[in-house]
Amino acid sequence: MSLHGKTAIITGSTSGIGLGIARELARAGADVVLNSFSDSPEDHAAARDIAAEYGVTARYIQADMSKGEEARALVERAGVCDILVNNAGIQHVCAIEDFPAAKWDAIIAINMSSAFHTTAVALPLMRKAGWGRVINIASAHGLTASPYKSAYVTAKHGMVGFTKVTALETAREPITANAICPGYVLTPLVEAQIPDTMAKYGMGREEVIEKVLLERQPSKEFATVGQLGQTAVFLCSDAAAQITGTTISVDGGWTAL
Ligand code: NAD
Questions:
Q1: Ligand 1, from 13, 90, 216: best to mutate by most atoms within 8 Å of Cβ?
Q2: Exposure pattern of 125-137 as b/e (b: 16+ CB <10 Å)?
Q3: Could you tell me if 203 and 136 lie in one domain?
Q4: How many domains does the chain contain in total?
Q5: Taking the complete model, does pTM exceed 0.90, yes or no?
Q6: Nearest C-alpha to atom 23 of ligand 1 is from which residue?
Q7: What is the dihedral of CA 175, 165, 155, 101, to 10 degrees?
Q8: CA 87 to ligand 1 center in whole angstroms
Q9: Which residue stretches of 89-187 are H helix?
Q10: pLDDT tens figures, 163-177
């Protein structure tokens, strides 16, 4: 399928899942807007690489998704948004009684509230264009919980709820809103959890991956960023025009348990 002529904004897309989704949307012909908070030479290089590889227009726009006005400014600066992928996210693992309040606030802001702000600005642009796709990257933790991830699980459940409301408010229009719920994907976000988990359980890297990270993923395999990107491309296809307000799990069977 071709997404030629469509523009996609992907929040938090200079690494991991966001970059994987940006690459697959570009491979399908969409122009893409990459985003992160850092504004490093590597961020701009990621956009240049996509433009060179897929022959699309790829821009990098710096905006901190922890700040509502910057999330809104990202979409305003892009000026066009046919496909909005709310992907930016961070993690912090800690018991509720010790969970730093600042971390709670940051996770709720980046992983959940930023989607409200970007969507609020994107929907009028989609209506003007007469077509739109909102794709929210939630998680298996948007459907189920784990201990020590209170802010993350709360934000991801919120993301699923926000997806349903977005779908209902756009149900009579050629706009859909869905959430993709990945299980574990080996990205920098997950890599960062491995050393602490190794120390906590006195395990080696492979043992942590098999017995801790993939414990609840029956396939015992990580999902890949390419598979998530292809799921996003499918949600942009005509075949998915009546799929709205739902979640698509890409989790190796986690939520079937
Ligand atoms: P990652 O750490 O590789 O990438 C996160 C991206 O978000 C980076 O580009 C980073 O620059 C950006 N980002 C972080 N804070 C930001 C901010 N304040 N403003 C703008 N951008 C910011 O992480 P990932 O694993 O690719 O995760 C992407 C999304 O997928 C997250 O929402 C995460 O919760 C979700 N997810 C990941 C997994 C997994 O196993 N990796 C599983 C389920 C859901």
A1: 90
A2: bbeebebbbbbbb
A3: no
A4: 2
A5: yes
A6: 189
A7: 120
A8: 6
A9: 101-108, 114-129, 150-169
A10: 999 999 999 999 999
Q: Give the number of the atom of ligand 1 that is nearest the alpha carbon of residue 111.
A: 32
In a domain, 234, yes or no: yes
Catalytic residue among 54, 60, 148, 152: 152
Find the residues whose C-beta lies inside 6 A of ligand 1.
Answer: 12-18, 35-38, 64-66, 87-90, 110-111, 137, 139, 182, 184-185, 187-190
Q: Which domain holds residue 211?
A: 186-222
Atom 7, ligand 1: residue with shortest CA distance: 12
Co-location of 19 and 79 in the same domain: yes
- Round to whole Å and give the CA distance between 113 and 118: 9
123 and 229 co-located in one domain: yes
One-letter amino acid of 60: Y
Mean pLDDT of the chain: 97
50: tokens are 């996509």
Q: In angstroms, what is the span from residue 167 Cα to ligand 1's centroid? A: 23
The residue type found at 187 is T
Six-digit token string for 53: 């590889």
Token pair 């296809």 in the structure block, residue: 237
Give the three-class secondary structure for 125.
helix
Atom of ligand 1 nearest to the CA of 184: 40
Bridge pairing between strands 31-36 and 58-62 = parallel
Closest among 226, 223, 248, 221 to 235, alpha carbons compared? 248
Verify whether residue 152 is a known catalytic residue: yes
- Quick: pLDDT tens for 205-229: 999 999 999 999 999 999 999 999 9
